[in-house]
């Protein structure tokens, strides 16, 4: 009797218990691997947090993938050092599909986590043709095709204003809320990055196995490249052709639907400026290289007015607008969207020179924090 | 609302809870409200069209039933089918016919009509129109009594799991399920969850991740290498199968959770050994509909050789046109019609190939798979020029340069092997619990791996189902 009861319990346990134990084991294994590989090498603002933990940050570039492509942080830093003898620790946080709201929330997180190491930081904001993007908290907080990028930057208290914003459909809001709840899990939180790596680097690795040449996996932390390799970018002829077609289509649509860009006092940029100022820092707007296809967006009479009005607003804010004196042709932007990587150092040098000129005209020097490395002889020297 | 959108899980949970707590007599009303909400999430303006079509068919079916003679009843059938086809024709084919007429007129040097309507195709219109027609015809044939309760009938038309992309359910099968009390069994819950898991896996892990390969190949304006064309076509064959059968699996799974059984829509179609076998395995609900409501009324195979071939061609050409208002769909339908005619002529009538031995079956499968894949080239191509270029490329330049072919082939191979292994293991059964090893740990292991794959491989933004455009 007793034996048959034990047997029944065992069978029931085998029937139902396996549906608990095996899934838990699989999920634990996946989570462990995700944490070991992807949390060890954070990206974007998580990577910036890691960089900020290591020392004072003096300059931060924010904006779109154009900023990521055009600004070479080490070159910028070295050029400022060559001009002033001061070595600003520089982070490039430009990112494709990023939004002003995400940069505000990311900077807020940096300031909250390491206020001392960001004291006095200068934030360089992308302003193509001298006109930054205009966005408000009531509109889109994130690119609709990359809502997940917001997850790491949100606090629970941000959810209410996010739900009240009118830019996103309910499905986006629900997605973000659920993702926020699952933020503790790397499997869920880093799933887009894991997918991209598996489908590109992972498949290349498999191909390499077959051909006997296994490429190195891109899982390492690089403080000069906080967003990691852009695995979706394939500079082949087909990719470039599609990118150029998209550029033309997008700009045609934008040109047909241009509306005035006004009312800067209620924008996220205004909040961003105040946030940076509260921590003793400053804001600089800077022009980025544009192909003729995108430059035409800023040539219309409406946009020229907008640019003039913004210049006045920047004066009110006390924020300079840097216009590096460089000429680019469409050949320098193979996909019409981004400056070719070979030209990023040239642009970064010119940008550094323009910034130093503006500072000197005001009788200032770059504010640099106490970030020194130790030389062989034990002397403290700037880490440039 | 898409099955793979973030709105669907909470929607389904609310529906299931309400379904459990509500008394039987309110369940259909709640399901109808949920179905209309589901549809309105896409575009609420077309709810009016759906309501109009539903009301017409409900009233006309009752009128058919009241008529004492079949001749008089036939008038109402014609009226109902006419109304349905007018709606379908206007929204789906109006611009196609205008464009085609203009092309014809301009080729003769005549002046063309200068109007073009900006019409949005109401999602699911092809599916619910065919389903309504089946109801009217079944009532006329006396195979089913007209629904007394308009809510039962409206739910039959708009039942959210299958409304926008099928399966197209025969009224004699689905309507009675809404007219009786339902109890969801434990087996239905288990198989329903499995089908949903399988459907999501097919759609977001396999189908959506093959889409970039297909898009890249078919975006070529000049013909790529033969290997690239072959890869693009094979990848599309797998993509469209996973996308569409994935949708059907999810629809059937959700319906099972509500105690409703929807018909099997796919049965390992690429294992077909001949064209006739293929259409018994691919989009079974549409091929059944075409057989019952088009091929058989046309005369079927009753008239002998030539008439049968004609009926097959008409059925398949119209079946192709049902997919979309474009010449390549028509061509695709005609191509399958020709395959069916050739099969009937050489295999069934002349018996030149029996295909009964194992080697013959292997050869038949290989030939049939590639014949179907060529059909997918016609289906997916953006223009006649592309069809011509790609067909020419198939016979030339089989090198692996460009397009990241090695990576794409590896990805395609992984997807194909995963799917083949999964379907072989379960035998494509609704209830996989009889599969080898299911009871001793393989079931939970495979299901867990599928869930992890869905979490990790689902695209960042939900991709719409291919058949939504039809």
Task: Describe how the helices and strands are arranged.
The complex is a heterodimer of chains A (384) and B (470).
Chain A: H1 2-39, H2 44-54, E1 59-62, H3 65-70, H4 73-84, E2 90-92, H5 100-113, E3 122-126, H6 159-164, H7 170-181, H8 186-189, H9 191-211, H10 237-256, H11 268-278, E4 282-286, H12 292-295, H13 301-317, E5 321-322, H14 344-361, E6 372-374, E7 380-382
Parallel strand pairs in A: 1-2, 1-3, 3-4, 4-5
Antiparallel strand pairs in A: 6-7
Helix pairs in contact in A: 2-5, 4-14, 5-11
Chain B: H1 8-21, H2 24-43, H3 47-66, H4 70-107, H5 125-141, H6 150-158, H7 171-179, H8 186-218, H9 226-257, H10 275-279, H11 284-298, H12 305-323, H13 327-349, H14 358-380, H15 384-394, H16 405-426, H17 442-457
Helix pairs in contact in B: 1-2, 2-6, 3-4, 3-5, 3-6, 4-5, 6-7, 8-9, 8-16, 8-17, 9-14, 9-15, 9-16, 11-12, 12-13, 13-14
What do you see in this structure?
The complex is a heterodimer of chains A (384) and B (470). With 384 residues, chain A is α/β, with parallel strands linked by helices. Chain A has 14 helices and seven strands. Chain A has a domain at 45-134 and 229-384: Rossmann fold (3-Layer(aba) Sandwich), CATH 3.40.50.1110. Helix content of chain A is 51%, strand content 7%. A five-stranded parallel sheet of chain A has the order 2-1-3-4-5. Chain A has a two-stranded antiparallel sheet with strand order 6-7. The longest helix of chain A is centred in the first third of the chain and has 38 residues, at 2-39. With 470 residues, chain B is mainly α. Chain B folds into two domains: 8-180, no CATH class; 187-273 and 355-469, no CATH class. In chain B, 69% of the residues lie in helices and 0% in strands. The longest helix of chain B has 38 residues, at 70-107. Chain B is globular and about 65 Å long. The two termini of chain B are 16 Å apart. The A-B interface holds A 14-15, 18-19, 22-23, 26-27, 30, 144-148, 170-172, 174-175, 178, 187-188, 191-192, 194-195, 198-200, 203-204, 206-207, 210-211, 234, 236-238, 242 and B 5-7, 10, 209, 216, 219-220, 402-404, 406-407, 410-411, 414, 439-441, 443-445, 447-449, 451-452, 455-461.
């Amino acid at each position: 009797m007793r034996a048959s009861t034990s047997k029944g319990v065992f069978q029931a346990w085998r029937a139902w218990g396996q549906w608990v134990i095996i899934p838990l084991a699989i999920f634990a294994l996946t989570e462990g691997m995700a944490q070991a590989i992807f949390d060890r090498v954070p990206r974007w603002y998580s990577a910036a947090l890691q960089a900020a933990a290591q020392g004072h940050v003096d300059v931060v570039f924010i904006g779109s993938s154009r900023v990521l492509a055009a600004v070479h942080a080490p070159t910028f830093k070295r050029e400022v050092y060559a001009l002033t003898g001061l070595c600003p620790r520089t982070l490039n946080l430009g990112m494709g599909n990023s939004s002003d709201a995400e940069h505000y929330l990311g900077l807020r997180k940096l300031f909250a986590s390491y206020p001392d190491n960001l004291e006095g930081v200068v934030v360089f904001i992308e302003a193509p043709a001298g006109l930054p993007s205009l966005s408000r908290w009531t509109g889109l907080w994130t690119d609709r095709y990359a809502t997940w990028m917001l997850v790491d930057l949100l606090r629970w208290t941000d959810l209410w204003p996010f739900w009240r914003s009118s830019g996103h459909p309910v499905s986006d809001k629900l997605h973000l809320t659920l993702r926020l709840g699952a933020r503790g899990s790397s499997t869920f939180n880093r799933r887009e990055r894991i997918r991209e790596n598996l489908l590109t680097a992972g498949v290349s690795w498999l191909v390499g196995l077959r051909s006997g040449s296994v490429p190195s996996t891109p899982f390492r932390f690089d403080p000069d490249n906080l967003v990691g390799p852009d695995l979706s970018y394939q500079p082949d002829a087909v990719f470039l052709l599609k990118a150029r077609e998209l550029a033309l289509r997008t700009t045609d649509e934008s040109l047909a639907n241009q509306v005035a860009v006004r009312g800067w006092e209620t924008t996220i940029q205004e909040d961003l400026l105040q946030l940076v100022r509260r921590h003793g820092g400053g804001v600089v707007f800077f022009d980025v290289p544009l192909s003729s296809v995108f430059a035409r967006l800023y040539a219309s009479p409406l946009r020229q007015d907008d640019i003039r009005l913004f210049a006045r607003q920047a004066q009110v804010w006390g924020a300079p607008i840097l216009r590096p004196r460089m000429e680019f042709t469409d050949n320098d932007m193979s996909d019409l969207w981004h400056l070719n990587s070979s030209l990023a150092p040239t642009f970064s040098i010119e940008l550094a020179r323009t910034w130093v000129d503006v500072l000197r005209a005001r009788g200032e020097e770059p504010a640099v924090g106490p970030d020194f490395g130790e030389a062989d002889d034990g002397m403290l020297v700037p880490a440039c | 609302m898409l099955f793979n959108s973030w709105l669907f899980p909470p929607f389904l949970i609310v529906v299931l809870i309400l379904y459990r707590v509500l008394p039987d007599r309110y369940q259909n009303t709640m399901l109808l409200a949920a179905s209309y909400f589901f549809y309105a999430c896409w575009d609420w303006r077309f709810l009016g069209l759906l309501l109009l079509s539903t009301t017409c068919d409900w009233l006309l079916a009752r009128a058919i039933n009241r008529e004492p003679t079949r001749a008089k009843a036939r008038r109402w059938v014609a009226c109902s089918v006419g109304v349905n086809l007018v709606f379908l024709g206007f929204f789906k084919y109006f611009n196609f016919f205008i464009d085609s007429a203009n092309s014809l007129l301009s080729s003769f040097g005549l002046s063309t009509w200068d109007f073009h309507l900006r019409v949005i195709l109401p999602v699911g219109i092809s599916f619910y129109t065919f389903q309504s027609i089946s109801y009217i015809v079944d009532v006329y044939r006396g195979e089913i009594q007209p629904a007394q309760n308009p809510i039962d009938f409206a739910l039959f038309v708009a039942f959210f799991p299958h409304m926008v992309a099928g399966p197209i359910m025969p009224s004699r099968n689905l309507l009675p399920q809404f007219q009786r009390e339902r109890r969801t069994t434990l087996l239905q819950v288990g198989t329903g969850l499995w089908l949903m898991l399988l459907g999501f896996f097919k759609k977001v892990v396999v189908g959506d991740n093959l889409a970039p390969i297909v898009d890249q190949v078919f975006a070529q304006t000049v013909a790529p290498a033969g290997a690239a064309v072959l890869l693009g076509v094979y990848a599309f064959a797998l993509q469209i199968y996973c996308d569409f059968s994935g949708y059907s699996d999810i629809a059937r799974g959700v319906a099972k959770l509500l105690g409703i059984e929807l018909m099997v829509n796919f049965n390992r179609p690429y294992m077909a050994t001949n064209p006739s076998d293929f259409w018994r395995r691919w989009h079974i609900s549409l091929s059944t509909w075409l057989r019952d409501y088009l091929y058989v009324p046309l005369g079927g195979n009753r008239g002998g050789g030539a008439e049968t071939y004609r009926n097959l061609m008409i059925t398949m050409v119209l079946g192709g046109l049902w997919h979309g208002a474009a010449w390549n769909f028509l061509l695709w339908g005609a191509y399958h019609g020709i395959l069916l005619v050739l099969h009937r002529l050489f295999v069934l009538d002349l018996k030149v190939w029996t295909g009964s031995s194992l080697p013959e079956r292997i050869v038949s499968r290989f030939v049939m798979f590639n014949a179907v894949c060529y059909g997918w080239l016609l289906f997916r191509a953006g223009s006649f020029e592309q069809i011509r270029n790609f067909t020419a490329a198939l016979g030339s330049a089989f090198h692996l340069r460009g397009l990241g072919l090695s990576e794409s082939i590896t990805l395609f191979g992984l997807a194909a092997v995963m799917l083949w292994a999964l379907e072989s293991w379960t035998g494509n059964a609704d209830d996989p619990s009889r599969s080898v090893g299911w009871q001793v740990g393989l079931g939970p292991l495979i299901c867990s791996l599928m869930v992890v794959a869905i979490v990790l491989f689902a695209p960042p933004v939900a991709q719409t189902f291919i058949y939504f455009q039809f």
